[in-house]
Amino acid sequence: MTRNIRKIDFKVTTPVVQQNESNPDLTFRELATAWLDTIKQDNEHCQLRKWLDLYGDRVAWSITTAELDAAGQAMLEHGYSAATVNRNISTLGSMYKWIAKLHRAPAGFTSPTINAVRHTEAMRVITIEAAKVQALRNVSLTFSDKRFALFVNLLADTGARKFELLERVWSDFDLEAGTILLETSKTGVPRVLHFTESTAALIRRLAPHRPADALAFPGRVPSVSINYRSSWKTLTASVGLPDLHMHDLRHDKARSLLVAGVTLPVAASLMGHSPVVLARRYGHLATADTRRAAEQAWAMAAA
Questions:
Q1: How far apart are the C-alpha atoms of 67 and 163, rounded to whole Å?
Q2: Same structural domain, 117 and 206
Q3: In 207-259, which ranges are continuous DSSP H helix?
Q4: Could you tell me the CA-to-CA distances from 241 to 132, 230, 253 in Å, in that order?
Q5: Among 129, 140, 144, which Cα is nearest to 238's?
Q6: Contact 69/116 with Cβ under 8 angstroms?
Q7: Cα angle vertex 47, ends 243, 64, to 5°?
Q8: Are residues 82 and 148 in the same domain?
Q9: Is residue 141 classed exposed, middle or buried when 0-12, 13-18 and 19+ CB atoms within 10 A define those classes?
């Protein structure tokens, strides 16, 4: 199926945009390129390619919500999932939020993503057998890049997003406390990740030399993090989980927290997630606990 939104005529009239002296002629391409140079996530680079083709030479402030809605609908019609469309709009939103936070957007400018349509997603609820998670840990140790094993163990321990680990430098780690500090996170709130003592021991063993300002997972260029996509594909196939995504360990971690009786607000804080999204995806697990508590209270009142 062809996925090319560049050739689709959205037939949306672009209104005249009031601009001031703050970068009035900044193009979408210039804005996107500058923003991408400040982040290290591969996903954002991939997502923005289609938008650069579509809006590259347009003034960044001239893109409208109606145009984004039309583009999103076109993506759906060309085979993209609702989740992918939503993530693309969120990525654009992060870019516009960045430039606005720097006070380099025209006065009165409002991101076109704020009121853009968000499409209903099919919830991906993941349950991974504990034995399979342990298998991922065990087999990862056989890879030639030993830090891949650290990466896999940290994914399983923390439920972190991939980029949250790949962007870390060693000064973010506290091996005694078993924590990793995220001063900035996707939700904009500082957050602490927690890992096990066995993973701390693995760090001491496999990464004995840890310069404070060095990336924990550097690529060929020391200042740029590695992408473990190929290693992950090989690992998951070898343990019989060829369709498992890195992000699925995050879903499984959230589910396991709630099954263990952790409340939604605490689980959301640990995961750096929106409580609303967590409740929508896994609320039925927490609801089972609250239902039992309510029934116990009814029984006591009736006694």
A1: 29
A2: no
A3: 229-238, 246-259
A4: 8, 14, 17
A5: 140
A6: yes
A7: 135
A8: no
A9: middle
Question: 106, 122, 138: which is the final residue of a domain?
Answer: 122
The pLDDT, as a whole number, for residue 255 is: 84
Higher per-residue pLDDT: 11 or 222 = 222
User: Is residue 2 domain-shared with residue 98, that is, in the same domain?
Assistant: yes
217-238 per-position pLDDT tens digit: 999 888 889 999 999 999 999 9
**For residue 276, what are its two tokens?**
């609303």
Tally of CB atoms within 10 A around 257? 22
Tokens of 81: 């999932």
> Which tens digit of pLDDT belongs to each residue from 118-172?
988 776 667 789 999 999 999 999 999 999 999 999 999 999 999 999 999 999 9
- Chain CA centroid to CA 92, Å: 14
E strand intervals along the chain? 173-174, 179-182, 191-194
pLDDT (0 to 100) of residue 140? 97
Maximum Cα–Cα distance for the chain, whole Å?
Answer: 74
Q: Is the dihedral of CA 255, 257, 263, 267 positive or negative?
A: negative
Helix (H, G, I), strand (E, B) or coil at 231: helix
